[in-house]
User: Fold this.
Amino acid sequence: MDPLFVEDRSRELEALLFVSPDPVPLDLLSDVVGLPPEEIEKQLKALAAEYDQQRRGWQLEEVAGGYRLATRPEYSAYVMRFLKPQGPQGLSKAALETLAIIAYHQPVTRAEIEEIRGVKADRSLATLLGKKLIQEKGRKEALGRPILYGTTDHFLRHFGLRTLEELPSLDEVFVQPDLTFPEEQERNNEGEPVKKQERKEL
Assistant:
């Protein structure tokens, strides 16, 4: 293949990734550029190697079923310092705990989340929905048909994951002392979970 042809397509791919706010799937890049997916993948790898060799401030990542350009982790402190005044507020401890429960137990209902955390989850769910980190995944076939919640593609992009299988194991995740999972709950003589006294979410 003509090297100039490869370079031209590489720059086209670079331009597409640069203007896209979300990871771009391989098949979409193939359709737009007009090359087979295997050739697109080869040229993307060449671009990634070029960025690494030249120590650019960004890198090419495969995440959430697509490809994107992202700043390198070693420059994150500068990026955060630049974005902090204008960026959105971070998640509260309550919202992070709720998000962790949803990520590892999805699909899960609000009542199940509250059973695990021992506190109301309305505010945290509203925050996570507003930030598009979670979404409704249907309704559970149970009394009242409660809404089921699960994570979104935006969740994967936000945490740099290609799939949910890349979530760290629970042993690697720091769990707050007051965050109790069902298997860890105190049980009565009949083996049933002892519910915590309901307390208002902070």
User: Anything to note?
Assistant: Residues 3-82 form a domain with the Arc Repressor Mutant, subunit A fold (CATH 1.10.10.10).
